[in-house]
Amino acid sequence: MQPWHLLVYALTSWGNREQQLAIEYLKTENSILRDKLGKKRVLLNDNERRRLAVKGKQLGRKLLSELGAIFTPDTILRWHRELISRKWNYTSNKPRVGRPRIRQVIVEQIQRFAKENPTWGADRIQGALSNVGFHITDTTVRNVLKSNGIEPAPDRPTSMSWETFLKAHWEAIFAVDFTTVEVWTKTGLTTFYVMVVMELKSRRVEIAGITTNPNKQWVTQVGRNLTGSDGFLESATHLILDCDTSFQTTTRFSKQSERR
Length: 260
Prior knowledge:
By secondary structure, this protein is α/β, with parallel strands linked by helices. The chain has helices at about 5-35, 45-60, 60-65, 75-85, 105-115, 120-130, 140-145, 160-170, 215-225; strands spanning about 175-185, 190-200, 205-210, 240, 255-260.
């Protein structure tokens, strides 16, 4: 061992001792402050809660408990969860753009007419709705029927049900979707997108990829990896996915896909 090795070891030990002494002092100070406060409630503003939430999340529940802080670990971690939920809160007072939603009473009437009269098309249902005071277009009727899984006449009575389709193709149906994980990085709270693929028959799950930017190029490359030789989707004939914008219309998985 060289002499300078001893010097580095001594400096490191001295630094660790200083840190431990500082931690012990803060724990004692926190204990005294808790005794002084008693049952009085400490009111913090949003910025103060945010600062404690970020630091507390990095420490974790166990270390927070050992510190004996004024606020309980449950409180600090709840502040962190609220901080993440605010990031995904898109509610605002901005006026809605586009057509207003169809009233539920009209939707129910369309469904009732379609089920009670299997041979009626959109025009006939539109006329029946006009007779009871609801004036909408036949296109609106078709959209309501489609969104509720009701086939247009005359295909309605003989169409294959979703249950029948699943039973017929159960051996080779897979599903893909995204989930998100919030991670603190040097730039702040960052959203990581995780693409998950499942084989419905066995419930086997594959993590296809993780990224902060699931763009067209990334999704295309992941699709190639999944459908290549020995890929997770090699035996798939049908892939169920939603209308997430990350699944670009130009993306091809080299397999037949079924959009739900």
